[in-house]
Amino acid sequence: MTAEDDPKGFTVHDPEKSRTSDLPRIDFSTFVLSLGASAMMQLGQSPGADDATKDEVTPGDIAMARQTIDTLEMLQEKTSGNLDDEETKLLQSILYELRMAFVKAKG
User: 61: how many CB neighbours lie within 10 A of its CB?
Assistant: First the structure.
């Protein structure tokens, strides 16, 4: 179906055809890292930025970061006992860093 065929303008893509070899395989660690990176960006901690160039954090950004951190905490609770040691350490480490960044941003 093309955008011309659909009155709403949506196009359906075959996921097998749109995959590229550049994308990492999605597993638990990749998912956690993605959520962690999102939360850091919401907290104005863009990768590679120094203190002078950190993004300004708005109350809405803080709320979104809190929700992302809550999501990671929920994952930690729900997956307790089901992760390997490496996944457990990764999740603990990311949550620690996010909590510290959250406190600093809220400061």
Answer: 17
CB atoms closer than 10 angstroms to residue 45: 19
Decide: 72 and 98 in contact? Cβ < 8 Å.
Answer: yes
Based on C-alpha coordinates, what's the Rg of the chain?
A: 18
- CA 53 to centroid of chain Cα atoms: 21
> What would the pLDDT profile of 17-51 be if each residue is shown by its tens digit?
555 567 778 999 999 999 999 999 999 887 665 55
Residue-by-residue DSSP string for 54-84: PPPPPHHHHHHHHHHHHHHHHHHHHTTTTS-
Q: How many other β-carbons are positioned within 10 Å of the β-carbon of residue 58?
A: 11
C-beta atoms surrounding 94 within 10 Å: 21
Quickly state the pLDDT bin for 1 (edges 50, 70, 90).
Answer: very low
Are the C-beta atoms of 36 and 66 separated by less than 8 Å? Answer: no
